[in-house]
Amino acid sequence: MKKLVLPLTLLFGLIGAANAFDGDAEAGKAKSATCAACHGPDGNSPLAIYPKIAGQHAEYLYKQLTDYKLGMTSGGKEGRSNAIMFGMVAALSDQDMKDLAAYFSSQRMTPGTTPEDVIEAGQKLYRGGDAERGIAACIACHGPRGAGTSLAGFPRIGFQNADYLKTTLEEFRAGTRANDMNGMMREVAKKLTDEDIRVLSQYLGGLH
């Protein structure tokens, strides 16, 4: 029975956090103009190096914004570090970040594509991982369609820009991005080869 206490406590805490989210999508739309240059007016970035944030879970988007703010105030020692985003979040209040997260999450992420040559290898790694190398299957956290789950904090990665995913996995592998829950992504990414990262990034672009 004692073994259930921590998981249940964590679950109820996550449920409470989800219910407490109070972003205003309409207010967020009015505040989103400065985001459009990189992410597009509706969150579907026209530039592959930046992420699509349309349809992303609001709680996840809010966490990233607050992590950027923490990175800015801590000189990069905590949170998430990115010079461009530091400038974007500098003047945002907590409510601004919630409103922006609510707006972009309410939009629809545009479909991407998966090159034919990576489908077999990408599907194998995404769905089954690699037991010999100790690589967990991506599907376990992100689901069969890459939709993730807002309650557990796992982001939507299906249809995401491949170039952005590639950079993100490389950052997790190098440890230069360290705002993942319990270091889960760093643990997975450090076992990935350059080819693994290329294949996964391109496979996810069209995952649906």
Automatic annotation (TrEMBL):
Its main location: periplasm. Residues 23-108, 117-208 form the Cytochrome c domain. It is found in: Periplasm. The keyword Electron transport applies. Transmembrane segments: none annotated. InterPro entries: Cyt_c-like_dom, Cyt_c-like_dom_sf, Cyt_C_IC, Cytochrome_c4-like, Cytochrome_c_Oxidase_Subunit. SUPFAM superfamilies: Cytochrome c. One of its GO terms (cellular component) is periplasmic space. Heme c 1 binds at C35, C38, H39, M85. One of its GO terms (molecular function) is heme binding. Binds 2 heme c groups covalently per subunit. PROSITE patterns: CYTC (PS51007). Heme c 2 binds at C138, C141, H142, M185. This is Cytochrome c4. The lineage of its organism: Bacteria, Pseudomonadati, Pseudomonadota, Gammaproteobacteria, Alteromonadales.
